[in-house]
Amino acid sequence: MARPKKEIEELRIHQINIRLTDIEREYANKQAKLAGLTIANWLRRAAFSKRPLVLSKVTPMHRAYYKQLVGISNNINQIAKNLNQGKYTKILSSISETNALLRQIAQLLTDDRKTN
């Protein structure tokens, strides 16, 4: 099955040739690769679009990292909300008691070291 023909208004039948320096061509090529476009499509977008030209390609690995970061930030926000609402008072009091015991142990060790 052949692909449907484009309307005459959608056909790109006109060609414009431009001359670039080596530096300009290298820049256009680099920007096109960053945007995941061909040089022609990047130049077309640069000329006719109001969108930003440099759109870096998002790899599946970056997408996975972003999902993990979003999940971690959601967890941190939920923990902070629950702490602020006083839902972890038992855990907080246990941590405080443990911290006090650790301070007493540290003080005893310091005193023991001074006597020996």
Description:
It is elongated and about 90 Å long. The chain has four helices and no strands. It is mainly α. Helix content is 66%, strand content 0%.
The main β sheet shows up as: none
The topology string of helices and strands comes to: HHHH
Q: How many strand segments? A: 0
Coarse shape: elongated
Oligomer: single chain
Give the CA-CA distance, first to last residue.
Answer: 93 Å
pLDDT below 50 for ≥5 consecutive residues: which ranges?
Answer: none
Q: Count the DSSP helices.
A: 4
Q: Give the proportion of residues in helices.
A: 55-70%
Secondary structural class:
mainly alpha
Query: Into which percentage range does the β-strand content fall?
Result: under 5%
Compute the average pLDDT. 83
